[in-house]
C-alpha cells in the first residue's frame, strides 16, 4: 500500500543538503501470538500469492504515529492492540516510488491469538513459514542442506580470495561453524543477520525480485513477503528471542493461567530450541516468576497438572526478571 507524501519538492531539491523532494511514511505492525507449539504472526494475503504485514500510510488525520498504526491494524484485521513498541525505521534511499523518499516504521505487538477479520484477507501464520531454518526444536533443519550449498557457492564466487574469506567468515558467524552449522554453534538471536546474508547471496525470493530475476529462489527458502516485510519480521523475531532472556515478555502471550509445560513450550516455540525440562522448571521457581492458582487441569492428557499465573510483583522486585535462556536452562 503506497504511503502518502508528506512534503513537496523544493526549488533547491538538487542540492545535497536540500530537503527530500518527497517524504512518505508507512506504518507496519509485526503482531505475534503463540498457539500451542507454534509462534504466529498476523499477515495479509494478496492476489500475487505473497503475504504482508498489516500496514498503511501515515495520514494527516492520524494524531500520532501509533494512532495511525492502530487504525490500520483494526481496519485490516479487527485486531485491537495492547502495548506496542517501535522496532526500527527503514529508510534506504531506494525505497519508495516515483522519486519520493519512503520511510517505514515497524512496530512489534504481542497479543493472545484472536480470529482476524476486516477489509483484507488476514490470517495467522507460523513465523517458521517464512524462516524454516530458524526452527531447531527437532534438530538441525533439513532446509540448511540446500542453503549450505548456496552459501558455499556464493563465498567461492567472490571477486577475490580475500573477499571469499570474508564471506566464509560471515557465513560461519551467522550459521555456526560451517555454512550448514551445528547446534553447538547456533546463536538463535542472529535471525536478521542470517536473513540479510541469504538476501545478499541471492538465496531468498525477495532478493531475486529486487534484481529483476524471473527465476525462483533455490531450494525451500521460506515464503516470500511483500516489500521488506520479511526483513521486519526477522528483526522482530531477533528482538523477542533476546528480550525473553531479561524481560518477562513471554507472559504477555500466555493465558491468565497455564501449566509450566505450556510455558516451556511457548518459550521453545519463540526461541526455536528445546530446553531441559527440569532445568527450566528449577530456574522459573528460583526466580519466582509464577505463583500457583490452586487449580489443576486435565487437558495435558495425563494426571492433572497444576495451573500457575505470572507473579507481577516480580516487576517491582528486580530490574530484569527474564527467563534467561538458553544458557541458564541448557538444551535437551
From TrEMBL:
Disordered: annotated segments: 1-20
Superkingdom of this protein's organism: Bacteria
Sequence ranges assigned to domain NrtR DNA-binding winged helix in this UniProt record: 250-310
InterPro entries linked: NMN_biosyn (IPR011213), NUDIX_hydrolase-like_dom_sf (IPR015797), WH-like_DNA-bd_sf (IPR036388), WH_DNA-bd_sf (IPR036390), WHD_NrtR (IPR054105)
SUPFAM superfamilies named among the record's database cross-references: Nudix, Winged helix' DNA-binding domain
Gene3D superfamilies found in the cross-reference section: Nucleoside Triphosphate Pyrophosphohydrolase, Winged helix-like DNA-binding domain superfamily/Winged helix DNA-binding domain
Identification of the protein by name: NrtR DNA-binding winged helix domain-containing protein
Species this protein is from: Ancylobacter moscoviensis
